[in-house]
Amino acid sequence: xxxxxxxxxxxxxALLKNGGPAIGIFVRxxxxxxxxxxGHAGCDFIIIDAEHGPLSWERVAAMVVAAENVGTTPLLxxxxxxxxLISRGLDAGAHGVxxxxxxxxxxxxxxxxxxxxxxEGTRGTAGSSRNxxxxxxxxxxxxxxxxxxxxxxxxxxxVAGVESVKExxxxxxxxxxxxxxTDLSVSLGHPGEYGHPxxxxxxxxIFDAATKHGVPVGVPVTDPSMAESYLxxxxxxxxxxxxxxxxxxxxxxxxxxxxxxx
Length: 262
Fold this sequence. Notes:
This protein is α/β, with parallel strands linked by helices. It has a single domain, classed as Phosphoenolpyruvate-binding domains (TIM Barrel). The chain has helices spanning 11-17, 32-40, 57-69, 83-91, 105-114, 139-149, 159-168, 181-187, 197-212, 224-233, 242-261; strands spanning 22-27, 45-49, 73-77, 96-99, 151-156, 176-179, 217-220, 237-241. Strands 1-2-3-4-5-6-7-8 form an 8-stranded parallel β-barrel, surrounded by 9 helices. The termini are far apart.
């Protein structure tokens, strides 16, 4: 097993700082096997999806260990940016967090602050797997290393979020701005119409704001061609979804067999 030593830094943060691209997957299914397969497939990261998935904290912690075991970085998407959820997710071992529905500089700053121990932040201090429960390193060594290693991804996925993205992207400690394409299209009244001119206009505004501050942009994608199109626009963090991959794979298999047996 590969134990994540925060003193060595976060390889996903380094990858993003060096221009990426970072390629990963949202994992909603509460399955250690799915996490391991994603790692063996070469994913740079997995996002354990506690916003939309039926996950317990015990399962989150187990999925973190499974990810580390296959050499992929485990992030946790919390359901909101409150201090208690972020602190608990990091104490469960996640190497960073994704915070959805960020709509103001105040929300963004609170989320970033919650990922840091004091005096930089408000994260509660307790022994966890990240410092070997006190058996590997003391707080004097662990706290600054953990603050440096944690990765923060903020989701911009509403009209209000786009209006604030110029300020949000400029906050110190934001490692990636992730465009929530589906929620953004819904917020604009064009559900699922990612190519709609109004949706595209807001996506461009997010790219422009993040690029101005040197912050990588992330997007959800369904297939390699969609990923390629956003990478050409400047995205450096792309993620697909486990349920989509599984569903399309099963459908392709079933349809292929039916066609061959017709």
